[in-house]
Amino acid sequence: MNRYKLQITGFSCRYFLGTLIRNKIELYSIEEEKNQLIIVINSDDYQKVKKIKTSCKIKILNRFGMEKYKYLVYKYRYLLFFFLLGLSFILFLSNIIFSVEVVHSKEEIRNLIYHDLAQYGLEKYHFVISYEKKEKIKKKILAKEKSKIEWLEIDRIGTKYVVHVEERKKKKVNTDSAPRDIIAKKDTMILSIQARNGEIVKKKYDYVKKGDIIVSGTIKNKENEVSKIRAEGQIFGEVWYKIRTEIPIHYYEEKPTGRKKKVVSLKILNKSLSFEFKKYQNYSFHETKILENPILPIRLVFEEKKETKVIKRNYNIYNIEEKALEIAESKFKKKNILLEKVLKKTLKDSKIIVDIFLKVKEDVTDYQKITDLSLREDTDE
């Protein structure tokens, strides 16, 4: 409720108090001293008090409710105006890009990316774009320059965009023609043999050890070696793994979502006021100082916020399998996993140990040079 605390001084204070009562002014508090009266009344009655003719002096000691806030705003209106104006100006400037830098050693690549960025609206003296628009621009440039660009990332650092680019490397043609065999990189069961050159000496579903020859560079006619060539091809096999995972019973994880943004924040002691439209519920951040008051505990900073997704879960022997398999799958490309099976679950201290068996399809191609070239030397003679 809006109220005023008034100090009334003068020789006729008691008479003035009677006048207030006769005017039916509600008194919430009365403190009477010699030649002084302190009362609390509501804001509507204060307007009536101002109209009463008296020789007493009336002074406002305090205000309560919205009246107090209105008074403070009015009293400090100029300070507040320039403070808000300054913050608005800083916020405005912080949302304008003053520099765009493409990081690459080749000028040709840098100029190419500068041109594409400008074409899609990302350039100097423009407003900061949203995360979604930035990702769209990145995808458009990668699609447009797919023959030249392998990878591209756009990072905002304050009022600057830094663009990191990786050029697509053209595969070098291997001119080495030394004879060789194709061998197994690991113990495996062969799933497919794609031989372009050489003699296939194993077949599909054969079990082979690491180092066994699958495609030979030694060409034979019946039992006789007729030439030594460079075997070419690719072998895919089924490889077996046993993986052990350890998962806490009380599981907690902060997983990055990939979304990030730069915001301006006003720090007052341990409190933070951020100038942003849509706030992340959970995030990690790194701050860069803009302004700092040497006397007051106030500073203005840029914060780079990275959104995170908090995962909390309590596990036991019965509900642990899905999480354990998810961790095991993360070590491989999921599409290459042929079979996964939980072998054993053990509860130890405050964690659950899970042993998992996996069958995985892998490229098991490896090579070994044919060092015995006596046949070629004999042929050349």
What does this entry look like structurally?
The chain is of the alpha+beta class and 381 residues long. It has helices spanning 13-22, 43-51, 66-75, 77-94, 107-119, 131-144, 321-329, 374-380, and strands at residues 3-9, 29-33, 36-42, 57-64, 99-103, 149-157, 160-167, 180-184, 188-197, 199-200, 207-208, 213-216, 218-221, 224-228, 232-248, 250-268, 271-275, 283-292, 298-314, 337-348, 351-363, 365-369. It is built from 8 helices and 22 strands. The strands form 6 sheets. A 5-stranded antiparallel beta sheet has the order 11-9-15-21-20. A 4-stranded antiparallel beta sheet has the order 2-3-1-4. A 4-stranded antiparallel beta sheet has the order 10-12-8-22, with no helix packed on it.
Short note summarizing the structure:
About 25% of the residues lie in helices and about 45% in strands.
Please name the defining characteristics of this protein.
Ubiquitin-like (UB roll), 381 residues, five-stranded antiparallel beta sheet, single chain, 24% helix, 4 domains, alpha+beta, Alpha-Beta Plaits
Largest sheet: 5 strands, antiparallel
What is the share of helical residues? Answer: 10-25%
**Straight-line N-to-C gap:** 114 Å
Percent of residues in β-strands:
over 45%
Give me the side-by-side strand order of the main sheet. Answer: 11-9-15-21-20
Instruction: State the CATH class of the largest domain.
Output: Alpha Beta
Q: Which spans of ≥5 residues are poorly predicted at pLDDT below 50?
A: 375-381
Strand count: 22
What is the CA-atom radius of gyration, in angstroms? Answer: 40 Å
**Element-level helix/strand string:** EHEEHEHHEHHEEEEEEEEEEEEEEHEEEH
Structural class: alpha+beta
**How is the CATH topology of the largest domain named?**
Alpha-Beta Plaits
Count of alpha and pi helical runs: 8
- Average pLDDT: 85
The CATH architecture of the largest domain: 2-Layer Sandwich
Number of domains: 4
Broad shape: elongated
